[in-house]
Give the backbone structure.
Amino acid sequence: MSIIEDLKFQYRVGGIANKMIYWNVGFFLLSIIFFYQFKSGVFDFPNWVAISSEPATVITRPWTVLTYAFFHYGFMHLFFNMMVLNFSSRLFLTFFTQKQYLGLYLLSAIFAGLSFVVSFYFLHQTSNMVGASAAIMALLVATTTYQPLMDIRLLLIGNVKLWHITAVILLLDLLQIQMNNTGGHIAHLSGAFFGYIYIKLLQNGTDLSKIVDSVLNLFSKKQSTPFKKVHVNPKKPTLKRESRIVVKDKTQQQLDEILDKISQSGYDSLTAEEKEFLFKAGK
């Protein structure tokens, strides 16, 4: 398998967290082509991609409350965000579903974007913002709110509680909010707040991610087939039909076992036979 085919394969079999990293990296590569100023060495994102602090601009370009969360100002910005996203995603998906993950990611990005606009409006400042940090903070804080005493093993430090890690990150945002990147820190804290509220509402029986699920269902193609009469021939044996069902169940069971193995130990833990089986199943 070539590198491109392997990346496509991992995208198909990977979960929502893996896809989210792919999307962020993909948009970053596109931004290098279209928005990177090679003379000055910086990105110049237009206000139809980045979210503007000007309410009038956001009203005329409402999609920017979401698009900003998939672009980054540079490689290091992307690199550190993807590291924390991978860490937060694994923790969140330990307790919650992929639909809840997607719902929280998108809704928290929108909430943080609007918080950025409102806060800068009252501060009488003008700026643009990109970055996935707010949505990542929402995932981390949501998991911490649900399981604060979860043990996390850190290199050179050992076991620490999850809430200790989250508290340090939030404290750094609070301390730097007036130093530099004020809009970014406001978005981080807004995302963290949304993650906390999301879990509290979920514990009370309200799942906000259903909002995103309902919207996505509106755009999904619903295949409707007309009613057809089925004529049954009693002379035909049904043994072959039953055998096909058994084979299908065994294949699906093997696929589920391999996907569970990927989620627990990673794609590299698969044997050559398992990788080949997944490749054929993904076609």
Notes: Residues 140 and 223 are 37 Å apart (CA to CA).
